[in-house]
């Protein structure tokens, strides 16, 4: 039987691979030294040079997110196109980067430094006989008598899969983004009693405190694993499950720390796609940067329980008092008074240390604290003890002023407890339920308008209490219109060129108008349609531009096309539209193509643009919350009773009635944007 018959149900890319690979004579099941591979050599197979015996996994020199600058040696689950492991995640190579297999192991090097590999396997006990990729997704170096010398399963990146385990003391580290696999700022670490999520050293979740995990034993934890029926922290050499989460049976399941900081367990089946089974933290405000730096996150489940009881509440972001929305890529809030700026942390992690090594001495006199108000909390406080108890606020602040690694304090009035924020500022939690009424937050600022990380564009944006939601309106309405418009233009250009061809061939103008309904060709989830279709959505609803961005990063454009179109558009056609449309919503207007360029790209005369992720990240920041904002507007229109009276005094919240007029007026001024 030919391999292509066996695999015929798999992806087209894979089919192409088997064809070409058969021609070029590589075996799929093992590679022996001396072997080398580059992306360009295997470009027809998206860089794939090795495939597991039954085709479930492949190894490739791969560029996630279709960008053209960063290539990684990856193991990919073929059916779901999921990267389960990458070798050189910290140091990407270019498209000419090379993977070499010698008897000493694997090296990856860039063209400029062939003798200076960016990544290599550690020194091995004996010479390599073969490189194999198993059907479980494990890449193995075997010696000539088939003894394992090295295996990728022992070096997890951000994901573990069935068959793999994460031992105590080791961690998963998130990737920076879907297209940049370098190490991001979130960590999942296994300790002898727990699994802990941290952001730059600040804890924001523990498995032991998650109500969905069942504690089965008090034994010491030895490793974390998933199998076909559950997720476990095992102890006593795998004989006891210390913690367990039972899950429906599935053949492919990943436990992954995603780049938003969520620890997610999900399963995949080719029929139904991804199904998310577990998420920690699960509440909308649970991740450290959900509302950006110093953004105030309110998931408000007390007031929504009366009507819409959606399973996990969606967060609403605003800025606390004395702060307003910053404009930089980082999102989040900056001091309203331009004379204040965030001090640089002396912690080396963000490499600003050179700025103020002597800050504790020289500038302690010019720091101040901005009051965020009360009824607040910080995620780390829940998992840590206060640095001092029974002190008064001024002592708490003094302590922070003196220490350059301290960026803010939280102070509980009733107990005199002093908590500090170190290294980096995350989002602030706000609760309306009264539980934290006596918790006050203060953020340390330097006085004197030094250059801050967030640039000074606030002024031209209108400054003041610019509501977060305004920035969202262009994407949601504009983007859908834009896609429809581009699709229309593209159809026309096809018709025209088709007619030209027909004329040249002397054919009659057979009417090419099977497409009266083509304008609804794109499926627009978000407004309520797409609950179960969005694969990587973390909080259920996604709106279209964000979905388009995610699909772009996955390279999986067909998900965006209307299923009713089946077969009438190709992935490349949808890709073209999505890439152009994404470029048209770049945050910087100067980076958007002009109309002539758009037409040129649609007709194929101009090369397709590569959307700039830096300019699109704002979609991620706002994406999950637009739906929430629009739901609130509807809700308020429906029952004018004014049930909702949130954030009465403390902030420039976008849910407060007053900002809605502003909000509507922003729609009209922003939606006209698009191509320049
Ligand atoms: C692989 O290359 C090394 C160095 O170029 C050479 O010494 C060795 O004989 C080669 N091995 C095989 C199996 O071709
Ligand atoms: C990789 O292999 C190629 C061809 O076998 C060789 O020219 C190149 O020098 C090798 N690179 C390294 C880093 O060993
Ligand atoms: C391939 O092998 C794996 C592991 O043995 C198995 O779970 C999977 O079902 C197999 N896939 C196919 C398509 O045969
Ligand atoms: C190693 O495994 C391969 C494939 O299973 C087999 O063909 C080969 O005979 C084995 N070699 C030894 C020394 O066992
Ligand atoms: C994540 O954990 C690894 C291993 O413990 C550590 O080297 C790394 O610094 C941690 N990263 C962050 C951002 O905490
Ligand atoms: C998964 O692991 C648990 C705990 O060891 C075990 O009881 C269960 O049978 C395993 N499931 C499968 C499908 O192997
Ligand atoms: C755990 O089990 C493995 C095999 O199942 C055994 O080799 C090992 O010695 C055991 N370790 C301990 C600490 O019991
Ligand atoms: C901003 O802060 C400076 C320094 O504390 C103060 O002098 C100034 O009045 C403040 N400006 C406003 C508008 O509050
Ligand atoms: C940190 O910044 C300094 C000064 O710009 C620079 O020399 C140094 O290489 C940077 N270190 C890292 C690890 O980026
Ligand atoms: C910090 O201050 C000390 C003494 O005041 C000085 O010797 C040192 O060079 C300063 N360091 C930096 C990085 O400015
Ligand atoms: C640093 O602090 C010491 C003691 O607090 C003080 O005597 C000295 O003048 C300070 N130096 C500067 C440059 O402010
Ligand atoms: C600054 O604060 C951190 C954390 O609270 C602490 O570890 C460190 O020792 C403090 N440094 C000084 C100079 O007090």
UniProtKB/TrEMBL annotation:
InterPro entries: Bulb-type_lectin_dom, Bulb-type_lectin_dom_sf. Residues 1-21 form the signal peptide. The keyword Cytoplasm does not apply. Residues 647-659 have a biased composition (Low complexity). The keyword Transmembrane applies. It is a single-pass membrane protein. CDD domains: B_lectin. Keywords: Disulfide bond, Glycoprotein, Membrane, Signal, Transmembrane, Transmembrane helix. PANTHER family: OS07G0415500 PROTEIN, RECEPTOR-LIKE SERINE_THREONINE-PROTEIN KINASE. This is Bulb-type lectin domain-containing protein. It comes from Arachis hypogaea.
């Amino acid at each position: 039987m030919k391999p292509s018959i066996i695999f015929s149900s798999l992806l087209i890319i894979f089919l192409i691979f088997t064809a070409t690979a058969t021609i070029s004579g590589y075996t799929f099941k093992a590679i022996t030294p001396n072997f080398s591979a580059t992306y360009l050599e295997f470009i027809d197979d998206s860089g794939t040079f090795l495939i597991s015996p039954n085709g479930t996994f492949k190894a490739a020199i791969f560029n996630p997110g279709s960008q053209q600058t960063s290539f990684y040696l990856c193991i990919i689950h073929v059916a779901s196109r999921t990267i389960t492991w990458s070798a050189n995640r910290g140091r990407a190579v270019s498209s000419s980067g090379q993977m070499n297999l010698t008897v000493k192991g694997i090296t990856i090097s860039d063209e400029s430094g062939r003798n200076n590999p960016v990544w290599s396997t550690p020194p091995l006990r004996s010479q390599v006989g073969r490189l194999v990729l198993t059907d479980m997704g494990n890449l193995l170096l075997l010696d000539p008598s088939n003894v394992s010398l090295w295996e990728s399963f022992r070096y997890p990146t951000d994901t573990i899969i069935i068959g793999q385990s994460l031992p105590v003391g080791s961690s998963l580290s998130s990737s920076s983004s879907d297209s940049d696999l370098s190490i991001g700022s979130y960590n999942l670490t296994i300790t002898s009693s727990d699994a802990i999520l941290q952001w730059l050293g600040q804890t924001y979740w523990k498995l032991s405190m998650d109500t969905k995990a069942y504690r089965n034993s008090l034994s010491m934890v030895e490793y974390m694993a998933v199998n076909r029926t559950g997720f476990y922290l095992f102890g006593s050499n795998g004989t006891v499950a210390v913690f367990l989460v039972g899950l429906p049976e599935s053949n492919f399941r990943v436990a992954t720390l995603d780049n938003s900081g969520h620890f997610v367990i999900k399963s995949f089946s080719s029929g139904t796609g991804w199904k998310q089974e577990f998420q920690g933290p699960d509440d909308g405000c649970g991740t450290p940067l959900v509302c950006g730096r110093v953004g105030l996150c309110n998931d408000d489940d007390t007031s929504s329980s009366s009507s819409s009881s959606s399973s996990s509440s969606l967060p609403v972001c605003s800025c606390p008092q004395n702060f307003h929305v910053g404009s930089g890529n980082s999102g989040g809030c900056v001091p309203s008074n331009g004379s204040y700026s965030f001090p640089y942390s002396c912690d080396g992690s963000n490499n600003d240390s050179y700025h103020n090594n002597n800050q504790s001495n020289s500038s302690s006199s010019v720091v101040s604290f901005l009051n965020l108000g009360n009824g607040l909390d910080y995620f780390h406080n829940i998992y840590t003890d206060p640095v001092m108890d029974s002190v008064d606020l001024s002592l708490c602040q003094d302590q922070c002023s003196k220490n350059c690694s301290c960026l803010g304090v939280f102070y509980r009035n009733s107990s005199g407890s002093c908590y500090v924020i170190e290294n980096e500022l995350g989002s602030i939690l706000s609760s309306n339920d009264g539980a934290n009424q006596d918790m006050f937050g203060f953020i340390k600022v330097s006085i004197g308008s030094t250059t801050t990380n967030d640039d000074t564009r606030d002024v031209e944006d209108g400054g003041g209490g610019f509501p977060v939601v305004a920035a969202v309106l262009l994407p949601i309405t504009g983007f859908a219109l834009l896609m429809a418009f581009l699709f229309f233009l593209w159809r026309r250009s096809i018709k025209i060129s088709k007619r030209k061809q027909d004329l040249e061939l002397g054919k009659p103008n057979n009417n090419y108008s099977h497409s009266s309904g083509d304008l609804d060709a794109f499926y627009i989830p978000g407004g309520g349609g797409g609950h179960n279709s969005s694969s990587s959505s973390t909080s259920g609803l996604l709106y279209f531009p964000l979905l388009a961005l995610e699909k772009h990063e996955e390279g999986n454009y067909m998900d965006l096309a209307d299923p009713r179109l089946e077969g009438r558009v190709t992935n490349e056609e949808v890709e073209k539209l999505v890439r152009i449309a994404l470029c048209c919503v770049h945050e910087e207007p100067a980076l958007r193509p002009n109309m002539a360029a758009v037409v040129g790209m649609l007709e194929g005369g101009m090369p397709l643009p590569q959307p700039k992720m830096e300019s699109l990240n704002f979609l991620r920041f706002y994406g999950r919350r637009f739906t929430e904002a629009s739901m609130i507007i509807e809700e308020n229109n429906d029952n004018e009773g004014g049930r909702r009276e949130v954030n009465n005094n403390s902030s420039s919240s976008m849910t407060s009635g007053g900002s809605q007029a502003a909000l509507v007026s922003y729609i009209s001024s922003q939606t006209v944007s698009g191509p320049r």
